[in-house]
Request: fold
Amino acid sequence: MNFELSDEEQAFQAAVRRFGDRVLRPNEQKIDAEGRIPSDVLAAMADLGLLAMPVPVEYGGMGASAVLTELAAEEIGRGDSSMATAVFFLLEAGWSTAFSLHGTEEAKREVLPPVCAGKAFLGIASTEPTGGSDLAGMHTTARREGTSFVLHGEKSFISGTEEAKELGGGHLTLAKDPAGGFDFLYVPTNTEGISTQRFHNMGRMGISTGGLTYQDARVPEKYLLGTQGKGFGLAMGGFSVARTYVAAACIGAAERALETGTKYIRERSVFGQPLGKFEAIQFELADLWSQLEAVKWQVRRAAWLIDTYTLKGDTSHRSEVDRVVSSVKLAAPQIAFECVKRVMMWHGASGYTKEVGLELGLRGIMSYMVGAEGGLNIMRIILGRELLGKDFLPYK
Ligand SMILES: Cc1cc2nc3c(=O)[nH]c(=O)nc-3n(C[C@H](O)[C@H](O)[C@H](O)COP(=O)(O)OP(=O)(O)OC[C@H]3O[C@@H](n4cnc5c(N)ncnc54)[C@H](O)[C@@H]3O)c2cc1C
Reply:
């Protein structure tokens, strides 16, 4: 067993950290205030090869492993703690992986190069107004008509709806097939018959969240991923990958918060000595560090499992992958939220200010607690299913 990153991985990690320090940190307040990631930031990410980095080289990506992508997600979450840039990054990384694995050759050649170049957006549209957890109960349909699929229905709380409209691009969309099963289709947002609505979130303001309404929106069959009627499993596989990168981004944001906090409690003097000398504070630091470190290595293991089994189409470790991925998506947002919250409290009143900036992280990480890429209870249900067996699922 070797826990050390390779020389190549370390060099890459250092390069993304430099990018985070020099480009993301100075921009994070602006990203939050202006509600968008500046185009020069996206262009810089594209130059570094970060956008949709797992996409194979022939379609414009760098063919990065899940481990390398996980390292980048950590650094981007550390750089822009509002999570906006991390969300942009990880949606494209996660869902371009599904596209690369299951898309048609024609669609990959058309869609993926602009995504990797930062000239189009790629996301996921599964949630509907009637719920995101019970995906099998969705209502949106994709009806086959000749060489097209015709979508009818509504999606909601979808990240990147405005970006896909303005930049170009769209979402991998899960829909019921009236002929049976589910279809997983790439749907360009600017397709005739699609309208969008923007929602007003409390955090990660630099990326939009909105609704998509399909009124007989027609997409060509080349945009179908995999086989007609068999899309549900492909979407679930995509969630495993994307959830790992969500967890990684949370680890980066948490590490940054703890570093900020550690510096502060060394320097801030109360009752004639540094805050860090008081056991109440020091023990909190110790607890947070040990929990964070445990989750961080589990996240890296999730990425390793994805490289070793999932991306090779090897289902022999499916249960292990499901357990580890749902475990990190359950634990990482919670420990990240706790780290930011505690560090905020160590700062006293100044922690409550926009200037200190910790609230950015709190608002951003909260999106992963309430539901983005699957609610915490859904992760618990997956773990329960894998630990106890399908007979113990709380629903049919
Ligand atoms: C900022 C943000 C961005 C998002 N971006 C996207 C996106 O890009 N694409 C997309 O498709 N979706 C997106 N979502 C939606 C997200 O996937 C859903 O929020 C999530 O799946 C939960 O669905 P819901 O919000 O409808 O809650 P519900 O499904 O109504 O669940 C409500 C609460 O009950 C819990 N719950 C549900 N079922 C059970 C159960 N059986 N037992 C116990 N507890 C349960 C859930 O964990 C949740 O806390 C985003 C959400 C947010 C907040």
In short: Residues 122-223 form a domain with the Butyryl-CoA Dehydrogenase, subunit A; domain 2 fold (CATH 2.40.110.10). The longest strand covers residues 148-159. The chain has three domains: 7-121, 122-223, 231-392.
